[in-house]
Amino acid sequence: HIAIASFTLGIPLLPLYAEAAGGVLPEMAFTLLVTSAVMAALPERWAAPLD
Question: What is the pLDDT of residues 13-35, one digit of tens each?
Fold first, then answer.
């Protein structure tokens, strides 16, 4: 998607990729932190695989 946007907008790929990564990485890190916190907070009976 970044390559298509780069071509469509006429912007060099690497600067556009670096700018997009700067916006996406904090969101990914926050998602991982929240997911880890939820998994740690779940009681064992709910954390077990379904039969």
Answer: 999 888 888 888 999 999 999 99
Enclosing H/E stretch for 33: helix 13-41
Distance between CA 34 and CA 23 in Å, rounded?
18
The pTM is what?
A: 0.53
| Torsion on CA atoms 25, 27, 29, 30, rounded to nearest 10 | 160
Q: Tell me: the pLDDT tens digits for 6-17?
A: 999 999 999 988
CA separation for the pair 51, 21 (Å, rounded): 40
- Sequence-distant (6+) residues with CB within 8 A of 17 are 2, 6
